[in-house]
Design goal:
Elements lengths: L8 E4 L5 H11 L3 E6 L19 H4 L6 E4 L5 H11 L4 E4 L5 H5 L3 H7 L4 E6 L14 H7 L23 H21 L4 E5 H8 L1 H14 L18 E5 L8 E5 L5 H14 L7 H6 L1 H12 L4 H10 L3 E4 L3 H5 L2 H5 L3 E4 L7 E4 L22 H7 L5 H9 L5
Helix pairs in contact: 1-7
Length: 404
Amino acid sequence: METSLHGVRILDLTHVQAGPSATQLLAWLGAEVIKVEPPQGDITRHHLRHADGIDSLYFSMLNCNKQSVVIDLRQAEGVALLLRLARRCDVLVENFAPGVMDRLGLGWETLHAAQPGLIVGSIKGFGDTGPYKDLKAYENIAQAMGGAMSVTGTADGPPTVSGAQIGDSGTGLHLAVGLLAALHQRTRTGLGQRVECAMMDAVMNLGRVKWRDHQRLTHEQDAGGDLPRAGNHSGGALPGNTVRCKPEGPNDYLYIVLQDTTWEPLARFLGGEALARDPRFATAAARQRNQGALWARIESVTRRHTKTDMFEALTKLGVACGPVLGTGELAANGHVRQRGMYVHIDDARRGPWATVGMPIRLSGSHVDIVRAPYLGEHTDAVLHGLAELDDAAIQALRERRVIG
């Protein structure tokens, strides 16, 4: 089966998470991704290692299905070699700190001159314009400055970061979409372009529903103001919240959304006809006004049952709900396994391990997930094939420590 991105070659200069998440996704769509690393490798190869002599899971779970080439871009020969490779590639992706690509001699003008059809993807914390453009960013900084932290947590508690990496991997997803759009446009124009994504911008976009609420708040108060934190309340047109379940461990919760059409069956199940006809909850507007009492009443029942039992019982009634599933539960979950969202990988050095699978499915394109590359594993093969260098030339570069 031919993959959707068959024939697309990507030069991947990214590191840590934001950039690698984008290029890994494109590799899973069938692109050939050549990861260019410094002699010491992507810094995350060494982060949070749980055993000596092997790459960290941090690196391995973000760099599957790629090739690894070691080039020292601090040397002029290394930059020249990279430009030689770029002439044979469709896309180059980088997420260096602001100004690094220009200092290396690999700015947009240079790359575009070398290969006019090259698409250059760039992730920065705050983009190429604006007062923040020269600042560095990390995941939690992007969440803080993009508004996500201010609306996450309880009303009487501090701002809280999301456990999902919306700043890094969320930006990677945005960049992947932009690169695909640029590739499509190139089929008409023949020209490459620069695709830029800022982490702060991506976080704001992922918080679009909260911006909806901000506008509503501003309209109602006839003045500007910050949207308050709402804990686990849905904040939407339908009430939603977590309720505790037996035996009240850290993840023994069920999330319930109260649809108007299923309120009466739910109420009768939880409290009989008396609850179904309670005037405090009888209408959608009443349920919105009396949410405190409503959720307390529901929780008085759910605390006597496990989240699994409640989930099964309520879904049979057509109630929209879901248990809070921990990572251990998800790793063993039958639905997750059947969907291929927790994949076991064979690795000669590490031994078996597992990674989160591909979340996008194309009926006419499939790529098996394979392990991340060892540092410099494909240097010789890529330089033979793309740079058209012979063994003697490659050995000379290695002796001068231009490659590894």
